[in-house]
Amino acid sequence: MATRFDPFQEMDRLMGQVLGTQRAAASMPMDLYRSGDHYVLHVDLPGADPGSIDVNVEDRTLTIRAQRTARAEDGVQWLAKERPTGTYARQLTVGRGLDLDAVSASYADGVLTLTIPVADEARPRRIEVTTGGTPATIEARGDAPQGATA
């Protein structure tokens, strides 16, 4: 029976353990849902400095940036230091039909919440149709506009 030896497998496993924790923590997990005539985005930013949070919209791209600074502890011997520090960034391309000039943001308990309203022109509306001189009201139906994609 032949066995296959991969000299990089153990190194890959070790690097995955070391970097896997940092990669998972360095990301910005989010939840996104539609509630009525607006979308709500919750982004986890635990330990982020509130003054460093920056939300920016350029064209159809929503960019979120935040920073977590390292704790400066003099005279201590670190036994474990797994919490990542540095700048976090995430970009989302948002679809048409959103009012990006009216986005509101709040930060509480390590969660950034963005509320993005649907633009007036993308909201369902009633259209009056006349038939044989008698007006009839028909409600316009259709799929909701695309909100945001990661």
UniProtKB/TrEMBL annotation:
It holds the Pfam family HSP20. This is Hsp20/alpha crystallin family protein. Residues 21-132 form the SHSP domain. It comes from the Bacteria. Belongs to the small heat shock protein (HSP20) family. Residues 130-150 are annotated as: Disordered. The lineage of its organism: Bacteria, Bacillati, Actinomycetota, Actinomycetes, Micrococcales. CDD domains: ACD_sHsps-like.
